[in-house]
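chain below, 480 aa
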Amino acid sequence: MMDLATLGHRIRHFRATAGLTLDQLGLAVGIAGSQLSLIENGRREPRLSLIGTIATALGVSVSDLLDDAPPSERAGLEIELERLQRGTVYASLGLPAVRPGKGVADETLTALVGLHRELARRSREAIATPEEARRANTELRQRMRSLDNHLEEIEALGQSEVDAVGHVAGALTHRSVTRMAERLGFELVHVNDLPHSARSVTDLDNGRIYLPPASIPGGHGLRSMALQAMAHRVLGHSEPASYADFLQQRLEINYFAAACLMPRRQAVDFLREAKARHDIAVEDFRDAFGTTHESAALRLTNLATPYLDTTVHFLRVGDDGAVYKAYENDGLRLPVDVTGSTEGQLVCRHWSARVAFTRTNRTTEFYQYTDTPEGTFFDSTQTGTTSAGEFSITVGVPFVHSTWFRGRETTDRLVSTCPDAACCRRPAADLSERWRGRAWSSAKLHAHILSPLPSGTFPGVDDQELYEFLDRHASTTDAP
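prediction:
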């Protein structure tokens, strides 16, 4: 897409260099000077044929006009001021826009742009709160539900990138990921001193993606991190203007990485074959493509509805029963607060996501049917452990779709009437009578609830630490 503001400034720059007025250039290219003025002010998009005619009249090439660099430092400031004034932050103030014409001195323009940048920074800092994050995350989850958790454009991009490096089947190799990076103009560099708040860092000027050491456990993690970093370029991302933008970009880069690690064509073929055998299993899907159980479970939710004609739900739940991540388009009633947010809410004690923690043998998936007010659901749950504690990953479907899944013959079946408090949240009357007023307990406080995130250009990443890292490595010749 053309950047109309930059295009307009470049046309004006070359027109002034040629010593032509608006009317003179308009006459030469067959349009009125007033129409040309709209183009130069970025308010009208010219046809490509007109751009070619203008370039010829000015004695420059089309590429000279379409270059995305402002023609001068002054023009760059004018373009930035116009963009910032069109943003929601400034618009919310109800103040008039300042037109950066010739009468505005360079010093004044620099000051205005500086003030706008600081206003935008403070706005990002203010909205990076738990309340704003929960609201934005809820809206994003609802949007993905309306799309059946499927992003067609990113699916196509992922398949295209994988095909371009000749990957056909099985797990995507590190070598293939490296070749994908090279095609995009990047070198993968493994370092020991990444900023503490960053998983990876991309140096756009020098074409480097900095990653943790290659010797750390978990090859999937390194492949995924590299693909996520590349995704920003493939998807044309710019710096997030809001916390909602940040969350949307994070979802998109995760989706792109999954679409490369488990490409649509190969993944759908695998799942359809498993469905034909009535033997869909997340653990098989995971092992076939060399990913984590969570990645395979999420990828299944991307593909289940459009390609397997199956509605589905996904849960990542902590050992305390709190939801970390959730998705559903099958009617399962997720626990939510008054704002509609599900993150941090407790799932029913009778759901597979929590019952699985009580198992002695956790090496394989746990299967369970659960009768709920919304119907009966079949679930497959796998538990895992991180430094932060235990968690469970659950993929489930309505009873009618359970016939396609491994574990459907299980006899484990429980009843859940949540959100009715009598289901599992209200202690039995005899226990309440015995212990009320006779005990005292101190709650375990999750430190991350009160710990503020660094508020920088990218939420959660410390700008100072990030820029010092980039400066430290910019002049080195790190080997990948």
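Confidence is low (pLDDT under 50) at residues 445-454. The chain has four domains: 1-71, 83-127, 133-261+457-480, 264-419.
thats it, cya
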